[in-house]
Design brief:
Rossmann fold, alpha/beta, 26% strand, two-stranded antiparallel sheet
């Protein structure tokens, strides 16, 4: 298991302190962290890579990566196929986790779907130590009229840089 791909321990701690057991999580990008989340929460995972589907006991939605105007504008490959997602996500979402698709594909396409998630309670963006993910987190906070709170982790990337994540309280 490559821990550099999974949410940092501080993100899991934040989730476990903030959300009561049984809460509903929608995550973009699945992996070994989904296994941990599934122990206490009802999780729906949006995943493009068939190799990561059914890694955890969660509800999977397979959505291929397709061209996306927001992604194209910033030179990214694309984002999840919204038509595969929009009618299958839970109606009530306590936490949205944006941890996919992988950075080499890009996550800016999330902007094309964010309005569909305005009734969620929280959003958590992983990898905000990377410029594009930080910009996405801050842009979503601005669109929603909220503030993103940034957290550094003790976890480091293979190059020695510090991992970070941010959260947006959608209810405040």
């Amino acid at each position: 298991m490559n821990e550099h791909w999974m949410l940092p321990e501080e993100a899991f701690s934040w989730i476990e302190k903030t959300l009561p057991n049984g809460s509903t999580i929608l995550e973009f990008g699945s992996g070994h962290g989904s296994v941990r989340l599934s122990k206490n929460y009802s999780v729906t995972s949006i995943e493009h890579d068939p190799d990561w589907i059914n890694v955890a006991p969660v509800n999977y939605i397979h959505a291929t990566i397709i061209e996306n105007d927001f992604s194209t504008e910033v030179g990214e490959i694309g984002w999840y196929d919204i038509s595969a997602i929009e009618k299958k996500i839970p109606s009530k979402i306590d936490l949205v986790i944006i941890d996919g698709p992988p950075g080499h594909i890009g996550r800016t396409g999330f902007l094309s779907f964010v309005e569909n998630l305005s009734n969620s309670n929280w959003m958590l963006f992983d990898d905000v130590d990377r410029t594009s993910e930080l910009a996405l987190s801050d842009k979503v906070a601005n669109i929603m009229g909220k503030k993103a709170t940034h957290f550094n982790s003790q976890m480091r990337r293979p190059d020695g840089s510090i991992r970070a994540f941010s959260v947006i309280n959608m209810g405040v």
